[in-house]
Amino acid sequence: MADFKQRWHQLEQKAKDIGYRTTDRHLRLAVTGLSGAGKTAFITSLVEKLLTAATQPPYGGLPLFSVCMEQRFYGAQRARQPDLNIASFGYDAAMQALRAELPTWPKSTTNISELRLAIEYQPKAGLLATLTDKATLHLDIVDYPGEWLLDLPMLRQSFYEWSEQLLAPDSPLSHTSAYASFIANLKTLDAKVEPADETLAAVADSYRLVLEELVHQQGFYLAQPGRMLLPGDLQGTPLLAFFPLPRGFWLDHQGQTVASPLVSSLEKRYRAYVKQVVKPFYQRYFEDFDRQLVLVDVLGALNRGRAQFEDMANALNALNQSFRFGKGGFWQRLFSPKIDRLVFAVSKVDQITREQQGNALSLLKHLLQPGWQHADESGCQVEAMAVSAIKTTRYGVVKDRVLGEVSVVSGTELSDDRPTLTLFPGEVPTQLPDDQFWQQQGFQFVNFAPPLMPVDQPFDHIRLDHLLEFLLGDKLS
Ligand code: GDP
Predict the structure, then answer these.
(1) Can you tell me which atom of ligand 1 is nearest the CA of 387?
(2) A single Pfam family, by name (predicted)?
């Protein structure tokens, strides 16, 4: 009898082992957004949540994530990343910064990176549930700068069209102080002479300074080529040593394009960039992504002012275009994307009061333009949410003698002396703001410090569980 029991147990174990092997699943979740959108903080907090959920009562701190709510979540561990040629996401360094005695925000995304988690759970339905009581989902989280997606239109533009667009008289580039020096450098170029590599590199550098001022000082978002400011491993290569050229260099009086050694050198570099950088990025990575999250710092853009906000709206529109795969269209000829769930999320909504979070979501939907939610023919489901990866504030109500009860947020300001601030950060518009709004606007979105938390307690968040349910829930059912 004992023998039989042992044999039975072995058979059962074997069946389960086969079950494990056939039930292992794999999902690649890509996270993007423009610089400062909150990608690094988001991934760090998400990973921390998943690593600790099994020990956090009740429901792993993620009650809207059905695998946790139904108590089928066994745990998650970090696993060896699958791609040896992609940098590792710096989770440990990010946690060190966030968990320091004086917590600081981790370093932002500048390149593509990835991290793998093995999530163990109890399947509840289908073949999996009959085969095994424990399955594993290998979740790869891939982080990449949204700026790289802004190059997308270049795939369909010629060097001349690109130059015309960037150097149009009303272009934000022309309002930077570095623009004059770029134009002065252009004037030193002799179109009839084959330019030396160093000459192109020097002018490209003065163009880079224009983009740098535009983005880092003036708070704009659209900057092409996207790799010039976030070069990743292309730093210093001739692939990035090109720039737009005013039409005076390539159009004659009759409006005909004139060939010259300078123009053809730049055109060649432009085409090489599109062929060797832009296209392969989509081909190599997009074919692999199953799910995509786009974080949008709507509040930061409102804070920066009208021109910057409108620029962000254009950039968001360009990002959105990257995910519209319609069958038989341009994309399908280039590669075969398989993203079947896409989320746009307003990030950092802990900076505003609870009532204002709905406004921020409604504004995001307006920014995405009508029809944003309709899955295209490829069947991709699209959702919009308002989230916060790391909640830095508490909500409260204060009594004002004139206004009566006012909702406020309270948190620690990210400054040397770290004062506690309690404030009403301003009213977020529900639609695209009009003239009157910009004249009256008064925002006070403060850069709060990450909160000091007990070691064994993960950061508070806003709706990360809702987001996880949409992005992963079906794969863990
Ligand atoms: P990335 O450039 O997309 O990687 O953005 P980061 O993750 O580095 O975030 C940029 C900045 O946004 C951080 O340094 C923080 O100041 C702020 N931030 C990011 N996430 C949150 C959040 O959940 N809440 C708050 N209040 N601020 C955040």
Answers:
(1) 23
(2) DUF463
Name the CATH superfamily, with its identifier, for domain 21-147+284-391+459-476: P-loop containing nucleotide triphosphate hydrolases (3.40.50.300)
| Backbone CA torsion sign across 337, 148, 461, 404 | negative
**Domain assignments of the chain as residue spans, ordered by start:** 21-147+284-391+459-476, 153-277, 393-440
Residue nearest to atom 24 of ligand 1 (CA): 348
Question: What number does the ligand 1 atom closest to the CA of 105 have?
Answer: 14
Sign of the alpha-carbon dihedral angle for 224, 228, 234, 238: positive
Query: Whose structure tokens read 């990257």?
Result: 322
Beta-strand ranges (E) seen in 12-134 are 25-33, 73-79, 87-88, 113-121
The answer, yes or no, to whether any atom of ligand 1 lies below 6 A from the CB of 461, is no
What does residue 119 show for φ and ψ, rounded to 5 degrees? -105, 120
pLDDT tens digit at each of 477 positions of the chain? 556 666 666 666 555 545 444 556 899 999 999 999 999 999 999 999 999 999 998 999 999 999 999 999 999 999 999 899 899 999 999 999 999 999 999 999 989 999 999 999 999 877 677 777 899 999 999 999 999 899 988 988 999 999 999 999 888 999 999 999 999 999 999 999 999 999 999 999 999 999 999 999 999 998 999 999 988 889 889 999 999 999 999 998 888 888 899 999 999 999 999 999 999 888 888 888 999 999 999 999 998 889 999 999 989 988 887 787 665 556 666 677 788 899 999 999 999 999 999 999 999 999 987 667 665 566 788 999 999 999 999 999 999 888 889 999 999 999 889 999 999 888 899 999 988 888 887 777 788 999 999 988 999 999 999 999 999 999 999
ipTM here: 0.99
For ligand 1, whether the C-beta of 290 sits within 6 Å is no
Q: What are phi and psi of 210, to 5 degrees?
A: -60, -50
Is the whole-model pTM more than 0.95? no
